[in-house]
Amino acid sequence: MKQIIRTSLFFIPIILFSAFSKMISVNPSVLDASGYVLEDDKKVEGAMVQLYQDNLIVDKLSTKKNGRFRFMLFSNSEYMIEISKPDCVKERVYISTKNEGDLADKYYFEFAVDLMKLKDFEGVDVSNLDFPTAVINYDADADEYVHDKLYSKSVRADLRRMKEEKDALKK
After folding, report:
1. Ordered per-residue pLDDT tens for the chain, 171 residues
2. Could you tell me which Gene3D superfamilies the record lists for this protein (predicted)?
3. Are 110 and 34 in contact (CB under 8 A)?
4. Domain spans, the chain
5. Residue 61 to residue 70: CA distance in whole angstroms
6. What global pTM score does this model have?
7. Maximum distance among all alpha carbons in the chain?
């Protein structure tokens, strides 16, 4: 009986250590998400770029003269990048890093955000602009992050409808 207890006391810590070290040695995949902010096709200095992870602000920065921003996003989370500037409509980009990719991979995705002036939407229902203007997901077949084309198509349709609404108000 004492031999069984000694053996158990010897092997249990080894098994626990082995299991624990496997848990902590898993490296999450990383998405290097970068982009730049434009207004009227010019790079914007001073735009506020906030990164939300699971609905909590985890990082923020103000763009420099080059209008660029960059965040490192880890796997198995949902992120929202919100870009704002006075007198412009807030833009949001949703990024899901929930994927089945190789956990040792590092991915890169770059995109531009073209800010729209608030005055261009005066008198128009802009409630759809409270939602993200772009959705980015992992595509397992391509093994990369891509824009959700169907979602982007619906956003373009909403923007077209708002422009038509604004044009109708001018008449």
Report:
1. 566 665 555 556 566 555 554 444 455 678 899 999 999 999 999 999 999 998 899 999 999 999 999 999 998 899 999 999 999 999 999 999 887 655 457 789 999 999 999 888 888 888 878 899 999 998 888 888 899 999 999 999 998 998 888 888 876
2. Immunoglobulins
3. yes
4. 26-170
5. 9
6. 0.79
7. 95
